[in-house]
Structure formats: structure tokens, C-alpha cells
Amino acid sequence: MDKSEPIWQPSTERIAQANITRFMERLNQDGLNLDSYSALHQWSIEHPQRFWHQTWAFCGVVGSQGSEVSILGDPRWQQSQPNRDTQWFPDATLNYAENLLKHAHQQPNALAIWFENEQGAQAQYTWKTLYDEVSRVQQWLIACGVTKGDTVAAYTPYLPEVVIAMLAATSLGATWTSTSPDFGVESVLERFGQVQPKVLFTCDGYSFNGKHFDMSEKNRALSQQIKGLKEVCQINYVSTDSAPTSSSHHNWQEVVSSYQAHPIEFAQVSFNDPLFVLYSSGTTGKPKCIVHSVGGTLLNHLKEHQLHCDIKPNERVFYYTTCGWMMWNWHVSSLASGACLVIFDGSPMCPNPNVLWDLAQRANVNLFGTSAKYLEALEKASFKPAEHGSLPDLKTLCSTGSVLYPEQFDFVYQSIKSDLHLASISGGTDICGCFVLGNPISPVFRGECQAAALAVDVQVFNSQGEAITEQRGELVCCNSIPNFPNGFWNDNGERYHDTYWSRFEDTWHHGDDVKQSTNGGYVFYGRRDATLNPGGVRIGTAEIYQQVNHIQGIVDSIAVGKETERNEQIWLFVQLESQHELTESLRKTIKSQLKAACSPRHVPSQIFAISDIPKTRSGKLVELAVKQVVNGKSVENLGAIANAEVLEEIKRVVLR
Q1: Residue 536 — pLDDT band, cuts 50, 70, 90?
Q2: From the CB of residue 211, how many other CB atoms can be counted at a distance below 10 Å?
Q3: Which pairs count as long-range contacts for 252-255, CB under 8 Å and 24+ apart, including other chains?
Q4: Cα–Cα distance measured from residue 278 to residue 82, given in angstroms and rounded to the nearest whole number
Q5: For residue 629, is pLDDT > 60?
Q6: 522 near 452, Cβ under 8 Å?
Q7: Cβ of 599: how many Cβ atoms within 10 Å?
Q8: Which helix (H) or strand (E) holds 278?
Q9: What does the pLDDT read at residue 173?
Q10: 3-state SS track over 123-150
Q11: Can you tell me the distance from the alpha carbon of 544 to that of 528, in angstroms, rounded to the nearest whole number?
């Protein structure tokens, strides 16, 4: 395929009907002449105040915008830096939950939530039902003494009840935080122990890949060890008659049946007040508690949903995620655009690889969100969703979490749907949003994220801090955006500055190894801190995985640098399919494939077989942890790794 030719182009009709086209038409009424995404993007970074002011109005934010769009705030750390210290909408007031529930009065009988799980359970909530449930839980939280400034947490699967609890908490101006139930008690304490929630929502258990997991002991341990915890509410998810862990704990059903629904009073808070606390992976130390603002999160999500993903009222939006990944926060915010949340809890391959696509067909999903690893798993299983049913309503597929390889673009268009906006998106927990993502009015090029986000001045820097194109470097952001985090919990600004702002002057450095293409898109190679450097040549691990993971018999792989005297070797670990062994023939196949497709520098010095590939609980490879093991260093935070026992296996393998 000619790499200079797009793999997909939107139709004239689709461009005409897109939200972003209406947005440009609105701007053009004020004397502008914007006729393309690139023109709009350039205008948005040159006139950020006008852009965000117009986005507020176009997306119908409920609240008082105030008199200022942005001002230079007080320095968070060291001397003043405008991009780091800009404060957006300093005198604006609003409420996050009110913006997500505003459609309840406009379309009370339309669906707001469609839920299913791997065991076949289903639940649907209309906007009215959702609003009424939030009202009841809000009243209980008020009785618990929850007010603005308090933190409310959830340790559960992604359930409708968790959406309700979050909306009830944020309706009061409280701060919300959550994590998934596969985290161990120690890992949860490392997170919740820092923010000290006043109220905790839990569940009795959950199922994954056909196995049941009881939560009673975890719930009991947490309720005893989280300082400042006043109340616990248990959702009976597995069994309707499960007794709470303690007699002092509350049952969800009893809570919601104890109150009558009435109009919700939404606490008006400042634009820059805290909304969510998200957590860094914690694989190299104690997790950082990243604080995201009410207005910055809402306004950015509205921009990404409506202008980049073309989400419209009553559309069905699905994202496969857990409550411990920022995509959960991103997904629930689509309620603010009037969309219906489509939720699935369980393994995406249980009871069969078609489970999510059956759901997409039943629920008439318009946007399907997943990870590159899931798409890779479908391809390796030779499963083609298009052969198992049509998806007439599906118009957008979002992929994130890791690099989407060029061949995976082919798989999507050949095996899922040919007329589809494939949006490879990348950002992170750090900004609870995206730096680069799709746009529905421009072509998609194979292997590329389409464009930098609107009003985000994304550039690629070399090690000297110089902007480069068509060369690999580090992704940076050279302006201020409303969804930069407030900072870290209980931090004076020093750790926040050192993490993101210390490498280049007044520039956010993100740590992704990327290249900007001639099309204006971005090609990702992996994380900068996981870049390999054999013989002084920088190699992105994604380049290796792209070749190795397609070899027959290999399920997955992870590559790290083994430090040697004045050099670095590539050590490769592979997870094999059952009935396959790491023979000398397979080793030669791996090496010859990498040499032919990449370069001799990409060929690993050592190849080892292991039972599983170490990953975080959100499915990301933990290359740094494996590198530490390989180089004889200790891993500081095993609790952040879903299958930490594999690190011991790696230690045994390399010491043979």
C-alpha cells in the first residue's frame, strides 16, 4: 500500500454533518475563514482564549463563565512560567454532575446507560432513572456529612451504580477517586490512603474470565485501615442477598430505597476546584495522586467528544475500561454530550471473542473504544468481527493504551468495517485527556495518529529542546491548556514541576518517543524512558513488538535494555502459545524478522520464554520494572503490577 495515500477518507456528507464543521461555520460567522482541520488547529493555538470561550458556548456548558478566560496565576514552584502557571476561567463557577445530567430534563425517557457483563446480566437506565438515583444517593451522602472538599472513593468494577455514586458525590462539590477491584489491598491503600476518602463504595465480588472473586476480605481490611473513613456502602453485584462486610456498613439497595427522589441541588464550585484524583502507575515508586479540575476536565472532554469524536445526543458510546483507568473518567463525561454510556464488565474475550461486538450490535454502538492490545488479540485469534454481523451504526473506533501498528490499521478496515473513522489516540492520566487524537473531517493515514488536539501546541523536540519534524524525538506541549492538572495531592508544586516542567523551559515534556509525519500526524514508538539504546542507536520498543508479536506461536513480548560495560544489549522475553516452545528455529525466526524488517541493531542479544508478560492493571507493559530486574535492581512497587509474580520468574530465567 502507498503510504502517501490515506487508508480512509470521510465522505462529503459526513464532513458536512460533523460537529466540528458546524463549529467552524460558527467561527466563520465572526469573520474568520477556516476551511480545514489544520486551519482550525492553527487558529486555536494562536487564539486560545477565543477558542476556549467559543468551545464553552458551542458545547453548552452549564455555569457562569466569568469575566476572564485566563490569567497568569501565582508560580507553583520556582520562578513564574506562563504555560505552567496560567489559570483558566479564574472566576467561573459550575458543577460537573449538573453538566452530565442536564439532558435528563430534555429527554427523560431516552437511555442514559446500557450495561452488560460477561455472565449475561443486563441493566438499562433512562435519563430520568439515572437522575432520580443520583438524587437518592446524594441525600445519603449529605446525611454522611459529605461536603465540598471531601473525597469519595470507589473500589469496584465499572457498574452503573458507580456512575451514580460519582455523580452524587460531585453534585456536592466533593472530589471523586476510584480504582478497580483487581488491585490488592496494599495497592489500594497506597492510593486511597493518601487522599483519605470520607465515604467508600465497594461491592461483594465480581467475575472475570469465568472466575468469581470474593471481595469481603479486601473490603474489611480497607475499611479498617483507611484513615478518616466514615462510611462504607456495599453494592451487591454478585448476590442480591450478600451481607455487608460489617454491620456498620450500608447496603446500596437499602440506601437508594431510603430516600425519595427530588430535584437535585448542585453545588456551584470554582472552575479550578478539584474534581478527580487519578494515579500514576506506581511501578517505580509510590503512586502520584494527580488532581484534575472540575472545569478543565469537563471542557476538555466536551472538546474531545464533540469536535474530535463527533459524539452527538442520543448516540451510544462504548469504551472497554475499568474504574482504575483514566478512560473511565473520559467515558462517563460523554453523558455531558447527551450520549448513552454502553458499559461492559468482564473479560473482552469471555465467553468468546465476539462478546463486545455482539454488544455493539445489540446496543447500536456509534463509538467503540478499546486498546491496541485487544485489537492485536483479535487478529492473532484470526477473529474478524465483520464476518459475525454487521455494524451499521458504528462510525468511530478509538484505540489507545499502546502503539497501534500500521498492520492493525489494515486489520480494522479489512476485518471490522471499511467505512470507519479509526482514531488512534494518545494522552494520559497526567492530563485526563489527549495530546493527539482523531478528527472526523480529515483522512486517516496508516500507522499515524491523525493530528494534535485543538488548542494544544504539540511539538516534537530533540534532546537540545529544538522543534523537529520527520525525525524522532520527544512529544512536548508548548502552550497552556485548561486540563493540565492542578498538581499532585499534598505537594507544594516541586514534584509536579520536576515531573513535567523541568526538562525544557516552560514546556510540558510528556515522555513519548514520537515522529511528526509529512501528513501532520504522529507516529509513536513507545515511551522515551523505555527506549533502547544498543550501540548508541535509539530504538523504540514498539518497533520490536510490531514484528515479534505477529510471529506464529508468540502471544506477546517485552524488550528491555541489559546494561553492559559502556553499552546496552536488547533482551527479549516472549510469551508463547500453548504447545509451542522457544526452539532454536523460533529464535532464528525472531532474529531474522527483526533484522530484515528493522535493522541489525534491533536484533536481541538474548531471547527468553516466560509464562506471561508483566503489565500494569490497566494492561500496559511494565518495561521499567523488567529492566530493573534484568539489571539486578529492586522493583519498588510490586503492587502496581497485575502479575508481579512473573518478575520472579524473569529473575530465575536470566540467572540460569
Answers
A1: low
A2: 9
A3: 252/161, 252/201, 255/136, 255/137, 255/140
A4: 25
A5: yes
A6: yes
A7: 12
A8: strand 274-279
A9: 98
A10: EEEEHHHHHHHHHHHHHHHHHCCCCCCC
A11: 15
Burial label for 163, CB within 10 Å (0-12, 13-18, 19+), is buried
Say if residues 157 and 323 touch (Cβ distance below 8 Å): yes
In contact, 570 and 600? CB cutoff 8 Å: no
C-alpha to C-alpha distance for 494 and 502, rounded to whole angstroms: 10
359 phi/psi in degrees, rounded to 5: -60, -45
Which amino acid, residue 3? K
| Dihedral in degrees, nearest 10, Cα atoms 631, 632, 635, 638 | 100
With contact defined as beta carbons under 8 Å apart, do 448 and 22 qualify? no
Closest to 151 measured CA to CA, from 133, 130, 169? 169
> In angstroms, rounded to a whole number, what is the distance separating the alpha carbons of residues 469 and 41?
17
Q: Which three cell numbers stand for residue 338?
A: 447527551
Integer Cα distance of 474 and 477 in angstroms:
10
The closest of 510, 509, 506 to 83, measured between CA atoms, is 506
Integer Cα distance of 655 and 562 in angstroms: 13
What mean pLDDT value characterizes the chain?
92
**What pairing do the DSSP bridges indicate for beta strands 231-235 and 250-251?**
parallel
Task: Judge whether residue 620 has pLDDT over 90.
Answer: no
Distance CA 501, CA 228 (A): 33
Q: Please name the amino acid found at residue 373.
A: K
pLDDT at 366: 98
State how far the Cα of 348 lies from the Cα of 350, in Å rounded to an integer. 6
Model pLDDT, residue 437: 97
Q: How far apart are CA 423 and CA 453, in angstroms?
A: 12
**Within 10 Å of residue 611's Cβ, how many Cβ atoms?**
10
Question: In the 8-state DSSP scheme, what is residue 621?
Answer: B
- Grid coordinates representing 557 are 513480548
Query: Parallel, antiparallel, or unpaired: how do β-strands 567-576 and 554-564 relate?
Result: antiparallel
For 118, 336, 348, the CA distances from 351, given in Å and listed in that order, are: 7, 33, 8
**How many residues in the chain?**
656
User: Residue 408's CB: how many other CB atoms inside 10 A?
Assistant: 22
3-state secondary structure of 204: coil
Per-residue burial over 628-642, b = 16 or more CB atoms within 10 Å of its CB, e = otherwise = bbbeeeebebbbbbb
d(CA 21, CA 307): 9
- Given strand 269-270, what is the order of strands in its sheet? 63-64, 93-94, 269-270
- Report d(CA 391, CA 395) in Å as an integer: 9
Measured CA to CA, the distance from residue 286 to residue 34 in angstroms comes to: 46
Of the candidates 427, 430, 176, which has an alpha carbon nearest to the alpha carbon of residue 294? Answer: 176
State pLDDT tens for residues 37-75: 999 999 999 999 999 999 999 999 999 999 999 999 888
The values of phi and psi at residue 127, to 5°, are -60, -40
Is 165:196 a contact under the CB 8 Å cutoff?
no
Alpha helices in 196-351 (DSSP H): 216-225, 252-257, 294-302, 326-332
Q: Which three cell numbers stand for residue 173?
A: 462539590
Grid coordinates representing 566 are: 559502556
pLDDT of residue 633: 85
Classified as helix, coil or strand, 507 is strand
Question: How many Å apart are CA 27 and CA 250, to the nearest integer?
Answer: 51
228: left (phi over 0), alpha (psi -120 to 50) or beta: left
Residue of 641, 597, 652, 586 whose CA lies nearest to 616: 641
